[in-house]
Amino acid sequence: MRAKLLSEALGDVLKPKSPRDMFNLVKTKDTIGEKISVLIQIFENHPDIFKQISEFRDEDDELNEVLMLLKISSLMKAGERNKVDKIIQEISDKYGRESLLTSANYLNSLIGTSWRSEDNIFSSRELEQLKLSLYKKTKSEDEEIRDEYMNSFLFLGYPDYVDVDVNGKIYKEERLGIENLIKVDLYNSADLQQAGMMKMRAGTVPGGRVYAVWVNKHMWGEEYAHNEQIPDDVREYIDNEKFIV
């Protein structure tokens, strides 16, 4: 339902039949701004054509960076995640993580941000996934080591009390209660959305807060566990290493 703002500004809707046609249309423009405007107009009306595109020869990096981002957006909207990961792997070193994220936000700003984020070049979820994928492909050496030996978990923590026998007398001892310790992929936006649902649940649990924690794979290899299923040594480790989400 969004108005085709660029189409109205530029006149007739551009209808390239192939990537070559697109290249020829872009070459008719003189400035980088005009060329980007043509690409966005084509994307608004024919996003699928970008799935076939490669970087333009004899064009500068700024234009090709935009071109590759539009290709990523087209593939994301088509659900072709594997192809997206491959392209990100190829372009992350060339253009840089921060430049790609800045350019993605810039593309959204050129058409005006719709109240329905799904209508933008990158929806809020697609932007988040782009960010996570770029971080995954541009990890530091320390992050590489961490990901090799550690698993990441989300959980809802709360004050829990257990009976302790001290010289024949029963006392209540406080410990960390753990509801739904779930292994997550920190580079997958769908996994991280679970934190939002946990936060809603935490509002109904006295003292409840949502935490994340890194745990050595040799210490704990399960993908899911609830409070009483977690050994005391693992619970103590989680309590010491947890951080608020």
**C-alpha end-to-end distance:** 36 Å
Given helix and strand content, the structural type is: alpha+beta
Q: How would you spell out the order of helices and strands?
A: HHHHHHHHEEHEEHE
- Total number of distinct structural domains: 2
Instruction: Report the strand count.
Output: 5
Question: What is the count of helical runs?
Answer: 10
Low-confidence stretches: 1-13
The general outline is elongated
Percent strand: 15-25%
C-alpha Rg, in Å?
A: 24 Å
Main beta sheet: strand number and arrangement? 5 strands, antiparallel
Tell me the strand order in the biggest sheet: 4-2-1-3-5
Roughly how much helix do the residues carry, as a percent range?
Answer: 40-55%
Mean pLDDT score, rounded?
A: 86
Protein model, in words:
The chain is 50% helix and 18% strand. The N terminus is likely disordered. The chain contains 10 helices and 5 strands. The protein is an alpha+beta fold. The two termini are 36 Å apart. The protein has a 5-stranded antiparallel beta sheet, with helices on both faces. It has 2 domains: 134 residues, no CATH class; 99 residues, no CATH class.
Task: Output the keywords.
5 strands, alpha+beta, 245 residues
Topology of helices and strands:
Blueprint: H1 5-10, H2 19-27, H3 32-45, H4 61-77, H5 81-95, H6 97-111, H7 124-137, H8 141-149, E1 150-166, E2 169-184, H9 189-202, E3 209-216, E4 224-225, H10 232-241, E5 243-244
Antiparallel strand pairs: 1-2, 1-3, 2-4, 3-5
Helix pairs in contact: 2-3, 3-4, 4-5, 5-7, 6-7
